[in-house]
Please model this.
Amino acid sequence: MRLKTVLIIIAALPVVLISLFFLYSFILSSPGSGRDLSIQKGVPFPALMAHRGVSGLAPEETRPAYLLARELGADYLEADIQRTRDGVLIALHDDDLTRTTNIEEVFPDRAKDPVNTFTYAELLRLDAGSWFNEAHPQWARPSYKGLKILTLSELIEIADGGFHKPGLYLETKSPEMFPGIEKQVVDLLKERGWIGQPTALEQEESSTLEESPGKDPTRVNVRNTPGRIIVQSFSQESLKIFRDLAPEVPRVFLFGQDTVEQAGSFEAVLDQAAEVDANAGPSGYMAWPWYTSKIHARGMIVHYYTINQSWQMWLINQFGADGIFTDRIDIALDYFGRMEEPDLEEYFKRIEY
Model:
């Protein structure tokens, strides 16, 4: 009898410990704990960002990746912004072009050269889509062959061009390589109507950023709210420049575990973010409730990167996240109840890819 009791206790112990952990997590940072902060900052809650477009289903930061994200209903189109030698702002993640283009065929002697050594005309000679077909044969499509590197101007056109009106979530990538890129980004966004004082209608639209009478709950309309544009960077200096140029635009300080180690503590990283009035964009590996609660206590919202599985979305949501970056916005929209599992082929037909 005693042995049976011991075995029952041993079997029940993990369940008890897990239950206590989630109770502790709920006390620290419950789902929705940052909702009011997000609303105050004019940012949707929870915010769902299409990381480099729907980069799990299409070549990252290309036209079909962003068109698909827009049509599915992402809140934001996320992009890494760099600059060509002749001053064109482009969407590209890596410092060189070897991973996502055929540069080794076109410019074999310059394959490892940084992006800013190429003109835009030279970049147009590259195929930015075929690599995806080779790397992800399960999602390969003939229409990806020959895709071109996208400019920021073209990305703005995509965001402006559909039924859904997503916002833009832009990262300055290695900004020290591109002096003055922050002003160039701000100037272009002002020219295209993305930065400036919101109208009374936009103020009303962002007052709750939730369902309300007269608002179509099936339509993304972040474009027409004060939170239409968010800038992000691993560089504190870049965010400082953005604050000086466009203080009304929300800023997010990106960081991972290496940043914490360099700073000496998690709190020291939050100090760095606070110095430039930024919010927090930590790695998803750091999405513990004790970190989320510290971020919220600073009056910051927190968007974690990069979350691609529904179980990860559930866990991070339970721990109080205000939004996520994801390569699979289709999975995120399904998980958060924005849409049922989509017929992806139908959406590919819609965007003509």
